[in-house]
Queue: 4 jobs
Job 1
Amino acid sequence: MDKFIIEGKTPLQGTIPISGSKNAALPLMAAALLSENAVTLSNIPRLKDIFTFNNVLRVTGARVDFHENTNTLTIDPTNVHFLEAPYDLVRKMRASFYMLGALLGKYGEAKVSLPGGCAWGPRPVDLHIEGLKALGAKIRIENGYVYANTPNGRLIGGNITLNPSSVGATVNILLGAVLAKGTSVIKNAAMEPDVVSLCNFLIEMGAEIKGVGTSELTINGVKELRGSTFRNSPDRIETGTWMIAANMHPESKIKLTNCNTKELGMFYKIFSSVTGEMEITDDTISIQAPESIPAYSITTEIYPGFPTDLQAQWATMMTQADGKSTVTDTIYNDRFSYIPELTRLGANIEFKQNRAIIRGATPLTGASVMSTDLRASVSLVMAAMAAEGQSEVLRIYHLDRGYEQMEQKLNAVGARITRALSEENY
């Protein structure tokens, strides 16, 4: 198992290209099963989760060709015949659960393992299941699997109100509804760019969806979808991560390219309050870090609010800010596993319920730390780059799930990160 050895302190200077979004790509891949012929997706990142989901699709009989040199993925569902997503693959990533809506929507039945993924907090699939039941699905759970079918081989239209709003449930219900017989309405639907991208892709294939980008989606079911070519969105979480990472070093000056700055939501406005000079276009962001970082408290909210996927990174930056700040997560209460590890590096953080109380600025010094999930992992890398001396970040397989060529990108702008084999025993 690999680890990172990181030498600090290292300001970041240069250009970082932003990769395609993993969170946006996975729903597109599931949606490809709904087509009558092949689809081509571009700007797909080379990540473990993408490779895993490729294999989930292949199990069904779909042909999947990933051209890694061009980040292009072709999926041909013509020969899909095995309507199952098995545990040994689904346990590795929650997004495999999108197979439930896709298989039900196209073929009228599915057997899908309950999901795995990051090791933090309960994230139940009740909303997914209740939403598909509202479209006429018959569902039971046995031995860790969800068994689903439709009485007449096809889902029907229905009305669903999501409480709370959920990206995953919105995606699964959309996948089921676009080929259903009749009209479906999803109220309190997620408005995240990942959902907007999926809607636009489905429309390109022939789906009829109204209200894209709003909290109420109306889907008129169609008989079939056709193949299409579609470009995946840039990764807004990677964009925000490198913005924060650069801001932690007074000498940092970076330019991020291949962005979609319109998808940053409130994060851009909030970040503007703590950075130095910043220039922005539709697809680039240039940042000159400030001499000192002001303390700034944030609370995560559904899009366009501050994203939960950036709260660990923000808390890490606040350890170097002047004064006291708080990070409150209203989406997931348990997403603070990074706090004990940041404390090992010298951070002064107190944790109460769903809130981190951070007192800065505290000098960070190198230590061995261990990550437990994707965003916790990257926050530890950021802290190590700001710390004096050498640090080890263990269990970086989480990072390989969500950040394409991380060490290559960061080393190209001044970081000193080495990948090495870990001595851990499991």
Job 2
Amino acid sequence: MKSLNTKIGVFILIAALLFLMIPGEVFASGIGVSARSAILIEQETGRVLYEKDAYTQRRIASITKIMTAILAIESGKMNEKVTVSHNAAGTEGSSLYLKEGEKITLENLVYGLMLRSGNDAAVAIAEEVGGSLEGFVTLMNQKAEEIGMSHTVFMNPHGLDDHENHLSTAYDMAILTQYAMNNETYRIISSTKVHKAPNASEDWDYVWRNKNKLLNLYSDSTGGKTGYTKRAKRTLVSTAERDGMTLIAVTLDAPDDWNDHISMFNWGFSNYELTLLEPKGTLKAVKKEPYKGNVVLSRDLTYPLTKEERNQVKSTIQLVKPPDRDNWDKLGSNEPVGMYFVKLNNETVIKAPIIYESTKKEAKGFWKLFKDLFTIDTGRELNG
């Protein structure tokens, strides 16, 4: 009996030690990921659904090329032909095997950049769009600052480890992807499995197959970008859409990145739903004249929520104090007259302008005379 008790005690001790060795994220969020840094956000609102050390700067390898691609797309030069320079053709690492002097459209370079991760394509794009590598890097960092990537420094267009301070975070790369995914051309290219491009120097065409295996492994996958260098290890950005909700996943230094992303997506889709809180159009909750029937939201207000959170959401409407009745005919149409606030756990998660619509003659600037605010419907619950 003593021997049996001893064995039971040893078993309990081993079980306890194994329990302590399991990462906290598994129990906190129901997800286990191999990555040193990871994040899952919802596309439309940017809400962070899950994160693991997502704000630490790390090397990012070829997911850098998301920035290179979106700058190329926004340049307006996608149909222009680019002459491949000696510098571009000689770029080390993953390559499209472009030849010096070869002419290829910027659009096809972006396809090669995103699907095959061509470093030669990255340099050719940079020289065309930025005038030089240095000029393009300046554009990259300007765009990063513009969209809120506050912990990112770009030093090249491809992500090779040729600079010590070419760094970003999982969160910043999610923000970049959220921005890029608002561009239809980027979405099309990112989701393409196979692309053919004419080869001016040979009698055969280029055929590029996307390195992002999730496009085949995961039925809800809508695109992304892979990355790897010896120092950065495996990096991956991917997107997926289900039931009208798009999620963005990022992992940095992830030995098992495909499964990391599938795990995060499945968890996100299982636990969150993009919930309509207030439809666009006339705000029926407003009963006071002259606003009744005349104030609108220009977009649907939606937010990713768990089932439990749907009963915790509250809205507040704030409107500019209206003029006296004799001056109602001076109200300017299509002017902001207030704000619609949505709170979750006492934190404001949505701010949306309320617009006054009227068929009457516009009186621009009228509302500048009225600075006082009053609040109606404070604390109104929005249950889905």
Job 3
Amino acid sequence: MAFRNEGSEPEMTVKSILETCDNSGIEILAINDCSDEEADFSRYPQVRYICNKKRLGVTGCRDSGVDEARSENVLIIDGHMRFRKDNWLERGIEAIEKNPGSIFCTTSVDIGSGNFDLKQAVLPINHGLPYYVGCGLKLFLTQKDNPSRPGNYRNIIESKWAEERDGRIYQIPCLMGSNYFFKKAWYQKLHGFKGLKTWGNSEPFLSLKSWLAGGDVKIIKDIEIGHLYRNKNPNAVPSEHIIYNKAVTAKILFTPEFAEELIHFLDDNPKVDKAKELLKANAEEIEAERSYFKTIAKLSQTDCFKKLRIDYII
């Protein structure tokens, strides 16, 4: 659980976890990413508290947290989430034990909408709140899709909320909701979020990695985890960093020709230019990750797009 400047929310998230599952064998890694204030988890022996000496961003915290994890079963969450007594932990572990080459998310309930008491540790079964069941992916947003197309970071590799389907567990193109169950070994084989900066585009990056490496991305629809969706993100970064992360996703995972086509589609403006400067500055690291991923990839780019029904024609 990475957090930055979230007040009492990280403690409330820990409290919700411990009140809704058998916590005798779990460890919670609480990673403070250079908040302006200290957090106090001293009353919770299950928490290992880590204070970063320099800001790593959400992606860096998650990578370091997985490396630090003592368990082979890992769940990544944000610092503003709620759980209910529905055996969510046992069912999440059961899913990854049966599918060690998969990454799972759950139904994400928007606990920031409507009249919901955020101090309540257990989500009501009939909560009546908005909920989301993973995402689809679109690689290009055309002028029709987005009239302000030039330079908008949403123009390429954009996730879109998926429509609900029947079934308890099923495949989805893209993770969403900031709760991901997986085997530590699978995440580390994929190199997690290595190559991304701070925040942005992490779900498409990790999802596409899992698919291309011959794994799966699935949702456990009948597990519902509450998420406080907010208007202001304490981890927000300049849009050129998000553009950079999307370009890095393309450069590491796609053919060089297709990656350049995606980046070219952004057109030119100061933010895109800044992202391109960052790409040049980090070219060696990006190439190293691209070369590594080629060694573990099992599904071709074209076959992956067909399997996920991703429209990749402009």
Job 4
Amino acid sequence: MRKIKLKLLCLLLIPLALFLHYLFSIFPHASESIYSLNLNKVFIQSLSEITGLFPFSLSELLIYCVIPLCVLYMLYTLWRLFNNTKSWHTILLHFVLNSLVAFSVLYFLFMSMWGFNYLRPHFGETIGIDITKHSALELAELYEYLVAETNALSAQTLRDDDGYMMIPNGYRSVFERAHLGYDEAGKIFPSLAGSYGKPKPVLSSEAMSYTGIAGIYFPFTGEANVNISVLDVSIPATTLHEMAHQRGYANEDEANFIAFLTSMMHPDIDFKYSGYLLALTHTASALAQSDPSLLQELNQNLSVLVVDDIRSNYAFWKKYEGKVEAMSSQMNNAYLKANGVSDGSKSYGRMVDLLLGYYNMYLKE
């Protein structure tokens, strides 16, 4: 009876989390000042420093352990049901209750360790840039700027025998150097500053590619995990994107923009080029919807090196398309909507609104 009471008490964690969610949604600036920039920031920095002592991803290890344990628990419950038919209702009740308790605890931990960051004011708002919609001509002007910068950077990157961009000293050097972009950005935007554990490579990156995922932040360990089977050209930007999540920026458009911002301020060419290419492709997608003929015209200015990198990256992801990727995309879309991102996966594209605002305020001559 004592165990039942304890389990029922654990179920109260769900309404507690929902109540806190409601409070932070009413007072987003309190969410920023109390939770995101203080409680959560201090906690995640400490947690990621501890998990960073391990050279492998604890997140990946936990997933490998938890999934088999869940399957074994279900099989064990079925075995008990078949061997104790008279007590089936009690066995089933305990199974349901235990499952609800596990969900309740995990949900509360997720929200308290990271989830409330979805309620903080938008990064664009906090740095004072205009994120309203812009015209096709403004979009074209931004694209012209990105084309010129990306072309110039592409000529300075290290290339393999096939002419594709490659990372000096491999992906591990990306994880070692990634913080340099945040160190510079943190001088201007304090919310990006701080000492965190280094990003981690995903050992099963090849399998991860079939889900269409290039990286993932795991709030229960504070680790930024990166798919290392992807092409070199996207690894720096992906790493910076996951590090933005690590710093409490939950929305995908914010993480994409922060990845561009920190890559632009990074001292190394491979980071700069990867970030500019990320911004270029997202802006191209937006311009394709707004004025496709204008996009075709401006694309004539792209250098051969940039075109080859874009095509090779497209070809890479194309070969992994399938049912697994489609299911993963649907799950990610549902996850984002469940956390208050109304347009789900489409929110990645809202990075362009931030780019336009930042371009007009800081980069436009």
